[in-house]
Amino acid sequence: MKSIVYILLLFFFFISCQNKSKKIDYAPKLDKKEVKEIQETIGVDILRYDRALFSIDKSQVKKELLRLKEDYSFFIRENPTTSENIERLLSFVNDNLNQELYKDVEKQFPDLSSMEKDFVSAFILMKYHFPQAVIPTIYTAILGLSYEYPIIYEDSVLVIALDMYLGSNYKNYKRLGTLVPRFMIRRFSKEYILRDCMKIISYDHIKFDRNAATLLDEMVLEGKRWMFAELTLPSTHDSIISGYSFEKLQWAQDNELNVWTYLIDKEYLYSNDNMLIRKFIYDASFTATFGNVSPGQIGAWLGWQICRSWIKHNPDKKISELMNETNAQKILKDSKYKPKKGN
């Protein structure tokens, strides 16, 4: 009985952590009047290519494909009525797995009005900080478990593969076998959709020196991407922005000073060793140096904290100044970053 009560308490703690508003001391200043003016100019209608494609009348394929090409030219760029294209498309639509994915997507995402509102909120803040930003056209699609590219962003078009956000326990993710580690599959849930989208869009608003390749450069670049997602999704919990479990997030918070001290002592910040950079920046279940209790991408986590500190200590500067600065050392200096001591 005690164990059940304990589990329930943990469950409610998890829910409360997910839903509570973030209390932060580094939030940039917002002009409410300007935000309201931007709000009046932005609307989002998500176009459901998945539904349009899987609902075609197969007895009139050529006519249906020409109709689809009018509204979904991003997906159908060539002449869709050639025998080869018709055969390829019907093969995709009639595939048993894709048919099952479509049915499950329809169950999980029958209506996207809530997601549209979330995108509007994110794009308002994006336009506030980056006035030249272009609001993308958003499509949803089924891409046959394309786990490497669940989000596609190209030429101001954003494509969301809904079949990659059906929940970490979704049965068909087992088909991926060992190709995709468990720590990645746990992020195949709808609460990560906007985070993934905003992280990809962030590249449009970040300048970086392609010749700079030190660990600090990569830390700050990734930190900017996490910061961009946080700025546009300010109520999203750190566990979603980072992709960490609550246990891994807690480890990062408790060991921020230890990790930073380690990097300083080893003189790693200005190393351009590619293997070293991969260890601290690339997505992984943990950072080998600190054991499997640590999260992966711990360098990106620190880069995020540096960006947070920059905003806190430069309240009168625009966020675009941070994103446009390519000198990672200058950003670190201006941030006055001091890692927090763990509990």
List the helices and strands and how they pair.
Layout: H1 2-19, H2 32-39, E1 47-48, H3 49-54, H4 61-71, H5 83-94, H6 96-108, H7 113-129, E2 137-141, E3 151-154, E4 157-161, H8 182-185, H9 193-201, H10 215-232, H11 238-242, H12 246-254, H13 256-265, H14 274-281, H15 298-313, H16 319-324, H17 328-335
Parallel strand pairs: 1-2, 2-4
Antiparallel strand pairs: 3-4
Helix pairs in contact: 2-7, 9-10, 10-14, 10-15, 10-17, 15-17
Number of helices: 17
Mean pLDDT score: 90
SSE string: HHEHHHHHEEEHHHHHHHHHH
Uncertain regions: pLDDT < 50 for 5+ in a row? 1-21
User: Helix amount, in percent?
Assistant: 40-55%
Q: How many DSSP-defined strands?
A: 4
Please report the distance between the alpha carbons of the first and last residues. Answer: 31 Å
* Tally of discrete structural domains: 2
**Strand order of the biggest β-sheet:** 1-2-4-3
Question: Would you kindly provide a written description of the structure presented here, covering whatever features stand out?
Answer:
The two termini are 31 Å apart. The chain has two domains: 47-111 and 136-203, no CATH class; 206-335, no CATH class. It has helices at residues 2-19, 32-39, 49-54, 61-71, 83-94, 96-108, 113-129, 182-185, 193-201, 215-232, 238-242, 246-254, 256-265, 274-281, 298-313, 319-324, 328-335; strands at residues 47-48, 137-141, 151-154, 157-161. The radius of gyration is 22 Å and the shape is globular. Mean pLDDT is 90; it is low at 1-21. It has 17 helices and four strands. It is mainly α and 343 residues long.
